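Risk mitigation, structural track. In case the binding assays with iron/sulfur cluster fail to produce interpretable data, a predicted complex structure has been prepared as a fallback.
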Amino acid sequence: MNTGQSIINSLNLSESLKKITEKVFAGKRITTSEALELFQSSNLSLLGVLAGFTKERLSGKNIFFNKNFHIEPTNICVNHCKFCSYRRKEGQKGAWEYSIEEIVDDVKKHISTGATEVHIVGGVHPSRNVNFYVDMLQSIKKAAPGLHIKAFTAVEIDQMCQMANIGVEEGLKKLKAAGLESMPGGGAEIFDEDLRAEICPDKTGSDEWLRIHSIAHRLGIPTNATILYGLLENYEQRIDHLNRLRTLQDQTNGFNAFIPLKFRRENNKYSHVKETTLIEDLKNYAVSRIFLDNIPHLKAYWPMLGKQTAQLSLAYGVDDLDGTIDDSTRIYSMAGGEENPSASRTELIRMIKELNFIPAERDTVYNILQTF
Ligand code: V47
Ligand code: SF4
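Fallback model:
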């Protein structure tokens, strides 16, 4: 009997969990019904072992992080997502819209700290179309030619192109020529059409979100993908979301990382919904890691999750802690996430080393810059 087999036997598993375990150890893909069985199992230790095994197959002992900051050009938004704590109407108290000059000043302030990436997302502004954002990207590139620009969710791209009466492919080509190098994974929320209509009625639809990412991949723009979980969805709907991503990734191979975003309930229309427990968060990371065998990285976004849970998630398949952030985002603190989120390189390295992994500082597309 080999070691893997004897570990499996010692776990006293049901026949079906044993079959799933053997599949994962053999590097085989699990089905949607097997993912459901893992979600329904309360065997957190098994999930940790299977997710950790899958993580090591994909990224060895490395845990990645980067030096980044965010720019949120505006929180004025034409959409009305009910989970959003951030959106304001034009002229409303608390609304902001930065000019290109203000944005460039912000970039200059942050690059002196050695950041390698700027992450730009915001509301869907009623009058700023793709041409405004082309100017913005060009101005940032001029001020900071070596800074990687990861910008705009598929939802922002969709609506900024519609406003300029051009198609998404043409818009993405213009943005790429102006300096766009990759796209973040936001706006995916939950792909199930009924639930999506309930929680974010006027947002770009699921098929369109997936289509925009596939166009980006075809144009050589790598992207990330997210799920908003813990808000009214059931396990079947979560798995359906993962499955649509896995299917697209089989075709394009353009997703770098998957980022589960835990629903935070402060200051939005779902404040009565209880947030997920720590156990549920860890389960969700583990099953995502095991199921999405073709997306190389799984990110715990600590400003949303809190640093302690993010650190613990490293034992459940996560291999990326995102970045230093440098107190530059408000989306999550407004919803109940970390206030003034900032992490030094030293702190991220400590968090990773405490779990006996190797801290690997990366660029946006996961080239390793240095290990510690
Ligand atoms: O799409 C908004 C989420 C997303 C809430 O690609 C909320 O590296 C929880 O996508 N509770 C935008 N989530 C952020 C995003 C992201 C973040 C970090 C890294 C990357 C990446 C992408 O934030 C939105 C939405 O799903 N969100 N409000 C809330 N109350
Ligand atoms: Fe607008 Fe984004 Fe908030 Fe939805 S989540 S209302 S698209 S800012």
